[in-house]
Amino acid sequence: MKLSELKKLIKNESINMEFKSTTGEISQACKTLCAFLNCTGGKVFIGIKNDGRVVGQMVTDNTSQEIANAIRKIEPPVTVDVSYISVEQEKSVIALDVPTGEHVPYVFDGRPYYRVESETVLMPQHLYEQLLVKRGQLNHAWDEYIINDYSVEALDHDEIRNSVKIAVAWKRMPEIALQEEPINILKRLELLENGKPKNAAVVLYAKKIDPQFFQCMIKMARFKGTSKLDDFADNQQFYGNAYRILEEATNFMGKHLNVSSTFPEDSFVRSDKFTVPVRAAREAIINSICHRNYQNNSSISLAIFDDRMEIWNSGRLPNALKIEDLNKRHESHPRNKLLAKAMYELGLIEKWGNGTIKIFDECKANGMPEPVFEEYSSGLSVTFVFAEPIGPRATAIQKEAPELSSSALSNRQKEIIEILKQGVEFKTADIMKKLRQPPPERTLRYDLNILKKRGIIGARGRGVHAVWYKI
Fold first, then answer.
1. Are 183 and 170 in contact (CB under 8 A)?
2. What's the CA angle centered on 385, arms 254 and 422, to 5 degrees?
3. pLDDT tens, 51-82?
4. Whole-model pTM?
């Protein structure tokens, strides 16, 4: 984040944002982070006065260690996104960012905190005990819980019949299933228990999403530029079952992504090519629906920028999987086993453990940079970096010589180029150590891929084993 973006952000101060003058207040900052984890998530900025004046502070190795030691006092252990925004000379604002926690209640230094309006206060004992009980229940699979507020009649029977047609076409179900009543299809898919739908049935087939299922939502935005602080060209959110979410996301992408049409030689059939391959984008949305953490109340996020498209959903990879495993054959470790099983039998998932490989293959076949998978804010994102930018501003930048255009590169990207000009190949971690103000790893990976896309730097290998060099 740039200083100008920070000033724009803090003008719209909210109850999910708090300012601290220096790291002398790090304990109070972490109490607030604890409260944010127990409520709606939020940001703490160190180096900003209570009245919103940006002053920054000196950042040394001891500063980073002090912050890390304080964060370790938050339990259960949690990942806090820490970033540094340069203010002047050697001073920076330190940004600490957390989402709603997956394992509420959290404690800092043995005590639980939560937010009352814009204040961080101790959590009452009775509420803490209730949340502990609820956390204990999370050991049970969310998708297999019976939901008493829904009946079979509240599910979309037409959607059930349409999905069976697809399943039969994929030979996942016998043709006789076409003659069965919806209730029997639900039984076949193990989505009912004692005549009551399970959560997985609601995710797949609900006619109307009740407020308690606000996880069944997708937020979609087209930004005018390359940052979430830029203005919206379009901003929507949609509640619905899996099929409707997939349909709305597809329509949104079709509306905002470029398409080029050609007529192959000796053919009268038009060939359409989208900015992001349709099958890759569809697979990413399906993965978000299937594998997300529904116990977290956040929604799926689809963001389109001038130079990329990002899809994020809650829930990190299972411990048995690493980011670098996603581009090769790997075992499937579904978080929502019942939902994943049903989606496979219905033809939404083609093959176990094959979804991410398909995304990589589709991008390669369409001449796109490799998609970038990252874990942050207790979730997993996939970023599709466009082969060519979209939008009038981005197109103008693309036409300029990339190393001569100061508007095309950020200060950090220019610093990365200077590091790689040393004529040595560096791993991502080595570049991070050499940067004056290291960003979160996901931000650095994004910068590296932008520079690679523009032909300024190159890479050998993938994931943590990749090494980068100046072309």
1. no
2. 170
3. 889 999 998 889 989 999 999 999 988 889 99
4. 0.63
